[in-house]
Amino acid sequence: MRATPTAARDRRGSPPALREEPTVGEPHPPTPSAVPRPAAPGTPPPPALRARSLGRSFGRGRSALTALGPLDLDVAPGEFVCLVGPSGCGKSTLLRIAAGLLRPGTGELEIRAAGPRPAAMIFQDYGIYDWKTVLANVRFGLDVQRVPRKEAEARARSWLARMGLAEFADAYPATLSGGMRQRVAIARALAVEPEILLMDEPFAALDAQLRTILQDELLDLTQHTRTTTLFITHSLEEALVLGDRVLVMSARPGRIIAERRPPFGRPRSGAVRGAPQFAALEAELWELLRGQVDGRPGTTAEVPA
Ligand SMILES: Nc1ncnc2c1ncn2[C@@H]1O[C@H](COP(=O)(O)OP(=O)(O)OP(=O)(O)O)[C@@H](O)[C@H]1O
Known about the structure:
It is a single chain. The chain has helices at 91-99, 134-144, 149-162, 178-191, 208-225, 236-242, 276-293; strands at 2-3, 49-58, 65-75, 80-84, 106-111, 119-122, 196-200, 228-232, 245-249, 256-260. The chain is of the alpha/beta class. The protein folds into two domains: 46-114 and 195-305, Rossmann fold (3-Layer(aba) Sandwich), CATH 3.40.50.300; 128-194, no CATH class. The strands form two sheets. It has a six-stranded mixed sheet, with helices on both faces. Strands 1-5-2-3 form a four-stranded antiparallel sheet, covered by helices on one side. Strand 9 (245-249) and strand 10 form a beta hairpin. Helix 2 (134-144) crosses helix 3 and helix 2 packs parallel to helix 4. Adenosine-5'-triphosphate (ATP) is lined by residues 23, 58, 65, 67, 85, 87-93, 252. GO terms for molecular function: ATP binding.
């Protein structure tokens, strides 16, 4: 899937950075997926997600607001990348561009996909359908993919079992707790076996204990499935527990100003929260982030490694 710059499509010639577009419910048409070719021996595989000079503005003229970029980003196949940054720096905008829900204003973002379902997105507010049963929710993406009904049902039930929800298959979401609803959303996203999982603060609405439990479950799941994941969070702890890499974004317009690789091997568990380096890394990231939030000088110039 390639999200091309607005400029390439704009026959009226309006400046790409200033063009306002509908943002919700109007996915831009994906261009045909790139079929990955095998990498030459010894060379790293090409990135699963690649963004170059990616930028996005909203509004026109004087009221135009530059939300994001320019930003370069590579996410390797199977990598779990966490994005942290001050509120309003463009994190969701980046994710929505990756999901194909929003066009870039400048630059491009490409997802290398072998299959018909390159990306699945999970939001903070679950994004599940209240009028469908739990099973129908999890089966939804498979139905859209036209997976035969029997197979879809079996795959959906197997994901429900994995998420500890087997006995709630016929329940409606309104009867579930927040944590259970988010598990349904995760099961639905993973059931379609996406090339890349895009998660926008998926645990933000949950209480601290549930959040920890779901973090540990997600860790376990993604280490098994090796699903490439781009994960937005305001929680540095969450980013350090889950991420192979943590990217820090600047204040709006968001750019990547620093990168850290938590020194915890894989497979890892939530026990890394107690590792001696954990608190130090969290404090270091917090310093970087605080420089962006309160605009203190001297903390913005770091370039990602
Ligand atoms: N559809 C839109 N129209 C106009 N402005 C928008 C639109 N979507 C986002 N913005 C603006 O773009 C900027 C970035 O928004 P975005 O939601 O991407 O930030 P964020 O980093 O995800 O924020 P938060 O951490 O608070 O969720 C904000 O100033 C926001 O008001």
